[in-house]
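re the bet — no i am not wrong, look at it urself. input seq straight from the record:
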Amino acid sequence: MSQGGLGGSSPQAILRALETVRDPELDKPITSLGFVASCTVSADGDARVRLRLPTYFCAPNFAFLMVADAYEAVAGTPGVRSAAVVLEDHFASDSINAGVAARAGFVASFDGEAAAELDELRAQFLRKAVMAGTDQVCRPLLASGTTPERLRELTLADLPPSRELDRLRQRRAELGLPAGDDALLLIDPETGAAVTADAVPLHLRRARVTQVGIEANTSMCTGMLAHRYPSANGGPGEVTDPGGPEVRGTASEGADGRFRRRSEGRADGIFPIGPAPKS
């Protein structure tokens, strides 16, 4: 099978790049969630990716983040000469696709409807990911007999290696929080300060609730996607390159920012309800 022509890229390389793009609320790759409908690349390195989401009314700020991040990932893939990332079957797809292609930013893409860029929204979700990751790392320790008091004393270097720990380190680093070996396990996700002894029980409960919420939302979103697109199987759809057969791509493995009424528009990038779909 051809691995790309003059451009030197391949659909598999683009999919690997897309594995770094996450649904901001679910903190999971868009590839494993089935949001990549297709991925093609020409012999000259012109890449085109089609994205799909669980519903027609998925929050446009969430959608914009994923499309913009996907564009950056594809455009940055070695051998790609040009990139086109297209969101389909969404009420705001025209505005999102045009804005991302022009690299205009969220506010300019939704002129008059969005009050701020999405940096704070992204940070909110990263803080939730840190809390969820804390739960994933702490629960096995608690199950093996580690006390909450002892958890407060542990550093990241004291923990057994795991994929969950690696992900927790990465999310902390993205927020600029302590992520080195000497960093404490239990920290405030906003300030990076150590959790006080009396706050440990509440901190662990918050972490657990956050993780359960993400799990529930993931189940709901994947179920709706499968209902909307019966062919969706949790992975990308058609993946093709020139001169070769069609192949199936492989993938690795309650937040603010949802719709609000127009009268409740805020200055933090939260997008109001869009227009009703046309009949």
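see?? The longest helix spans residues 200-228. told u. also The chain has a mean pLDDT of 85. so pay up
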